[in-house]
């Protein structure tokens, strides 16, 4: 029984506005889920996959205009533009409410309005947040069931006066009497809006059915709204994986890592180490909520219950644990359908089928001039199916973080691993993160852009204030703060070939990280940070020459000076809310790289 007054009033208000055919309160049951899947198969919007190869799995194909996050149509709505900052698309909260209310008027005609109670984080955990998404998309319902704790179990947590985050979503495609539905209904790109109201803790989304735009518990709540809550409440909501790394002696280190989308977070989170005696378990692959525990250390919780991963490039070579996890009860979106009703995608590690149906529903062969799967094709799978899920992944207290990694796709300049000189230097590293863009967002691919803390598309308030929040958290943590490192698996040689083999071999870098955590006398201070000395990272068996290894850590002075110029340009966009301590870190780096401070090679002062 629903007795939350605010929720009941809101559902009635939305129903009056959107005019759905019927209202369904989602209970999260297996039976309900199956009915929705059967409904979508019957309607032609879903394909049930081969029950022998992929039991409980289904394939969806989205509209070509609705394949990724639409950053250009994603807004932070506030009273003052400066509270959103220069890195966000700001819009006046009153103005956008008027615009979107007109769009919502009658937008669910002929469709069912689903009321989806969900929890980000384990049910009842101190850091968890409850949201309720209203949506007219059954695709959203079945994905939210995987990605969150959802349904009656969450509704039971809401007392008469409990607070929750209202999340309103519509595909923006009313089905009027006599009209025939389409496989993937959505609105034109110019009518799509994904709007966040951090001051009111509210989300409105219209026109898109794609995950990042429609599964409002994910990026919208767990990052954009949660980041604003975290600042106000004294914790951190970050675009980070969480992994557990255990050494041969049985000691476990929990590591959080922030990389931009499609830069290997899921692969690292489920990595199979190649070095004997070491193991990795996954706590989460995308988002971390972190708070300071009673002992003064930083503790992290994965607020999600599933994986929403990029399929192309995922293989038994790159991520065998992910491949095993998505063999059952998985939703596939925009991959290729083989003739035996199984799925395939590029870089899957299997030969291309001789024939199939591509992500747009067209006949496909290896000779086709288009890829069979969209570059941002996705899988949605329960985290509980991961064979290396950590036993503490749902611990309400979280796991203690010993190290934080930042990283991105950088073909040059940035070394394989670089340790921050101190917390504020680490915050500077995170603020200056740059990466080649990928297909995870609509726009140009392969362009270097600044993506601070991998949060550029996800920070729900002024980026300068966000930087300052990191500095403040460091002051609270003091000497119990995790060590901070910057990693780059993507450095290339002059021929364009990756220098570092990556994937499971990244365990060699993580081993070095744990040794630095333990205070072992490794690495040396340089102009840019603490870099490993030759021999500090075990490269035996990789076939890398000494010159190649040296190249992984070479400091290209001209490249770094160009990097500084780029960072200065980015900092200028932040404006007067840029913390003075970060400007000081940039100035010190510039000084160390010039004749004023050192040779630019090692920071020795010569």
Explain the overall architecture:
With 606 residues, the protein is of the alpha+beta class. It has three domains: 204 residues, Phosphoenolpyruvate Carboxykinase, domain 1, CATH 3.40.449; 271 residues, Phosphoenolpyruvate Carboxykinase, domain 3; 79 residues, Phosphoenolpyruvate Carboxykinase, domain 2 (Beta Complex), CATH 2.170.8.10. Helices cover 27% and strands 22% of the residues. It is built from 16 helices and 31 strands. The strands form six sheets. Strands 1, 4, 5, 6, 7, 8, 9, 10 and 11 form a nine-stranded mixed β-sheet that branches. Strands 12, 13, 14, 15, 16, 17, 25, 26 and 29 form a nine-stranded mixed β-sheet that branches. Strands 2-3-19-24-18 form a five-stranded mixed β-sheet. β6 and β7 form a beta hairpin. α11 runs antiparallel to α12, α11 packs across α16 and α15 packs antiparallel against α16. It is globular, with a radius of gyration of 24 Å. 52% of the residues are buried. The C terminus is likely disordered.
What's the helix and strand layout?
Layout: H1 5-18, E1 22-25, H2 30-43, E2 46-48, E3 58-60, E4 74-78, H3 81-84, E5 90-92, H4 93-104, E6 112-120, E7 129-135, H5 138-147, E8 149-150, H6 152-155, E9 165-170, E10 193-197, E11 202-206, H7 211-214, H8 217-233, E12 236-238, E13 241-246, E14 252-258, H9 265-269, E15 279-284, E16 288-292, E17 298-301, E18 306-310, H10 320-325, E19 331-333, E20 336-338, E21 343-344, E22 356-357, E23 363-364, E24 378-382, E25 399-407, E26 417-419, H11 423-431, E27 434-436, E28 448-450, H12 463-477, E29 483-487, H13 507-517, E30 524-525, E31 530-531, H14 546-552, H15 557-574, H16 580-593
Parallel strand pairs: 1-6, 3-19, 4-5, 4-10, 7-9, 9-11, 14-25, 25-29
Antiparallel strand pairs: 2-3, 6-7, 6-8, 10-11, 12-16, 13-14, 13-15, 16-17, 17-25, 18-24, 19-24, 20-21, 20-22, 22-23, 26-29, 27-28, 30-31
Helix pairs in contact: 2-5, 11-12, 11-16, 15-16
């Amino acid at each position: 029984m629903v007795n939350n007054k605010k929720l009941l009033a809101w559902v009635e208000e939305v129903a009056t506005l959107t005019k759905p055919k019927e209202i369904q309160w989602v209970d999260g049951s297996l039976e309900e889920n199956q009915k929705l899947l059967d409904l979508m198969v019957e309607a032609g919007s879903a394909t049930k996959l081969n029950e022998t190869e992929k039991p409980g799995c289904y394939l969806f194909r989205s509209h070509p205009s609705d394949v990724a996050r639409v950053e250009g149509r994603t807004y932070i709505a506030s009273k003052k533009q400066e509270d959103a900052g220069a890195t966000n698309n700001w819009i006046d909260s009153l103005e956008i409410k008027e615009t979107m209310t007109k769009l919502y008027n009658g937008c669910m005609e002929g469709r069912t309005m689903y009321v989806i109670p969900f929890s980000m984080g384990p049910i009842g955990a101190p850091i968890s947040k409850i949201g309720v998404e209203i949506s007219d998309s059954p695709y959203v319902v079945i994905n939210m069931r995987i990605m969150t704790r959802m349904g009656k179990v969450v509704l039971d947590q809401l007392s008469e006066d409990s607070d929750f985050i209202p999340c309103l979503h519509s595909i923006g495609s009313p089905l009027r009497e006599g009209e025939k539905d389409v496989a993937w209904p959505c609105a034109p790109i110019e009518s799509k809006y994904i709007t966040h109201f951090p001051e009111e803790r509210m989300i409105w989304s219209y026109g898109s059915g794609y995950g990042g735009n429609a599964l409002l518990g994910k990026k919208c709540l767990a990052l954009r709204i949660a980041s604003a809550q975290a600042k106000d409440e004294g914790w951190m909501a970050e675009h980070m994986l969480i992994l557990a790394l255990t050494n041969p002696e049985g000691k476990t280190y929990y590591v959080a890592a922030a990389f931009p989308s499609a830069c290997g977070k899921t692969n690292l989170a489920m990595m199979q180490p190649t070095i004997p005696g070491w193991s990795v378990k996954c706590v989460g692959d995308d988002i971390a909520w972190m708070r300071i525990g009673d002992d003064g250390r930083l503790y992290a919780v994965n607020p999600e219950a599933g994986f929403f991963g990029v399929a192309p490039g995922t293989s038994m070579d790159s991520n065998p644990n992910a491949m095993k996890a998505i063999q059952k009860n998985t939703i596939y979106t925009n991959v290729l359908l083989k003739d035996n009703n199984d799925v395939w995608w590029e870089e899957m590690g299997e030969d291309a089928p001789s024939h199939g149906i591509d992500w747009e529903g067209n006949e496909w062969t290896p000779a086709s001039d288009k890829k069979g799967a969209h570059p941002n094709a996705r899988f949605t799978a329960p985290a509980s199916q991961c064979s290396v899920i950590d036993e503490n992944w749902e611990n309400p207290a979280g796991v203690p973080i010993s190290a934080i990694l930042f990283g991105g796709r950088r073909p040059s300049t940035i070394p394989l691993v670089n340790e921050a000189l101190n917390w504020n230097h680490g915050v500077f590293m995170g603020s200056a993160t740059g990466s080649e863009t990928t297909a995870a967002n609509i726009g140009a691919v392969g362009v270097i852009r600044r993506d601070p803390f991998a949060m550029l598309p996800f920070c729900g308030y002024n980026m300068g204030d966000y930087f300052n929040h990191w500095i403040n958290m460091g002051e609270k943590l003091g000497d119990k703060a995790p060590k901070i490192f910057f990693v780059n698996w993507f450095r290339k040689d002059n021929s364009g070939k990756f220098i570092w083999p990556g994937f499971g071999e990244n365990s060699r870098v993580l081993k070095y990280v744990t040794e630095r955590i333990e205070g072992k006398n490794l690495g040396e201070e340089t102009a840019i940070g603490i870099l490993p000395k030759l021999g500090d990272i075990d490269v035996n068996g990789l076939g890398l020459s000494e010159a190649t290894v040296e190249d992984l850590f070479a400091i290209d002075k001209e490249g770094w000076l160009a990097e500084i110029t780029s960072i200065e340009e980015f900092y200028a966009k932040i404006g007067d809310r840029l913390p003075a301590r970060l400007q000081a870190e940039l100035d010190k780096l510039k000084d160390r790289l010039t004749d004023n401070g050192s040779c630019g090679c090692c920071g020795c002062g010569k």
